[in-house]
From TrEMBL:
PANTHER family: BINDING ROSSMANN FOLD OXIDOREDUCTASE, PUTATIVE (AFU_ORTHOLOGUE AFUA_2G10240)-RELATED, NAD(P)-BINDING ROSSMANN-FOLD SUPERFAMILY PROTEIN-RELATED. The lineage of its organism: Bacteria, Thermotogati, Deinococcota, Deinococci, Thermales. One of its GO terms (molecular function) is nucleotide binding. Keywords: Oxidoreductase. Residues 5-123 form the Gfo/Idh/MocA-like oxidoreductase N-terminal domain. The keyword Oxidoreductase applies. It holds the Pfam family GFO_IDH_MocA. Belongs to the Gfo/Idh/MocA family. InterPro entries: Gfo/Idh/MocA-like_OxRdtase_C, Gfo/Idh/MocA-like_OxRdtase_N, Myo_inos_IolG, NAD(P)-bd_dom_sf. Signal peptide: none annotated. Residues 135-329 form the Gfo/Idh/MocA-like oxidoreductase C-terminal domain. Transmembrane segments: none annotated. This is Inositol 2-dehydrogenase. Its EC number is 1.1.1.18. It comes from Marinithermus hydrothermalis (strain DSM 14884 / JCM 11576 / T1).
Length: 334
């Protein structure tokens, strides 16, 4: 079994999660961790059992022992780091998004194609056992022709205002996962209609963003869908998907976090996932495992460049729909 020299770029929240998972992959040998914060870099180095640290990600990319880069840096740095890694001939795994603008995303992904290097975007839900099994059953025709789709995504609390300023807005930061799920389970989307409001934190309105949203989807295969998003669910991370077809429906929902119900006088108690990091803990491991397997086998990793691009187009279409108060066909987003 081949082992790939790997550089982890970014030692923040997602970087630490990837560090733990990389340490457990027999196909990955973490050569380096790069982060401008030396303390964070050393902490991730210990988790990943990495050989060394760099203050600059570019230095890690150019390390001759590095064959694969895992990018978990802040969003504005993704595009230049992907381009640098592609030019250096490294296989690339990158957290979403590639960039917040379509033209920049296209340019970067064209650099990846020109270099001929493997690329995977971090839509981890595709590797969650519930989502993956649902896709298999849909492909097997278990529920017949799909008629309706519904996805709910609610975070326990809004991110910091500093984070929100650079996030691209709710549709590109949060709802983009639901949009990718829609494509993954149902197919391409032709048209969206979005509504949004500020119901959680008035300061979010000052950023030109919303914290509560609803998006209607019209799919190319004739199915209809709805996506609900909120930045606040006081009981924890609230996420579910329903795919309804002519012969039944599939529901993806993980409740409770611990498979235990305490029945007592007056009812019962169960716990709940609080954040996406614990809800999709297994999916984060499985997506990296699949990426390294694809690189070793010489197969294109998935989700790939096209998925990164099309999810972004849906997010941009939803953003335009909200701002212009009208349905937007995805083909308008060029």
């Amino acid at each position: 079994m081949k082992t790939f020299g790997t550089a982890l770029l970014g030692a923040g929240r997602m970087g630490r999660e990837h560090a733990k998972n990389l340490a457990g992959l027999p196909t990955a040998r973490v050569v380096a961790v790069a982060d401008p914060d030396p303390e964070a870099a050393r902490a991730a180095q210990r988790l990943a059992r990495a050989e060394r640290t760099y203050p600059e990600p570019e230095a890690a990319i150019l390390d001759p022992a590095v064959e694969v880069v895992v990018i978990a840096t802040p969003t504005p740095t993704h595009a230049p780091l992907i381009e640098a890694a592609a030019q250096a001939g490294k296989a690339i795994f990158c957290e979403k998004p590639v960039a917040l603008e379509l033209a920049q995303t296209r340019r970067v992904l064209e650099a990846v194609r020109t270099a001929g290097v493997p690329f995977q975007i971090g839509f981890q839900r595709r590797y969650d056992p519930g989502y993956a099994t649902a896709r298999d059953q849909i492909d097997d025709g278990v529920i017949g022709e799909i008629e309706q789709f519904r996805a709910v995504g609610r975070d326990p609390a809004p991110p910091s205002l500093e984070y929100l300023k650079a996030s691209g807005g709710l549709f590109l930061d949060q709802a983009i996962h639901e949009f990718d799920t829609a494509r993954f389970l149902v197919g391409e989307v032709l048209e969206v209609q979005s509504w949004g409001a500020v119901r959680v934190d008035p300061r979010i309105a000052e950023l030109g963003d919303v914290d509560t949203a609803l998006t209607l989807l019209r799919f190319a295969n004739g199915a209809l869908g709805v996506v609900e998003n909120s930045r606040r669910a006081v009981y924890g991370y609230d996420i579910r998907v329903e795919v309804f077809g002519e012969r039944g429906k599939l529901v993806i929902e993980a409740l409770p976090k611990t498979p235990l119900y305490h029945f007592r006088e007056g009812g019962y108690h169960a716990d709940h996932y609080f954040f996406f990091m614990d809800r999709f803990k297994e999916a984060y491991r499985l997506e990296l495992e699949a990426f390294f397997h694809a690189v070793a086998a010489g197969h294109p990793p998935t989700p790939g460049p096209e998925d990164a691009l099309e999810a972004l187009r849906l997010g941009l279409a939803a953003t335009r729909s909200l701002k212009e108060g009208r349905p937007v066909r995805v083909e308008e987003i060029q």
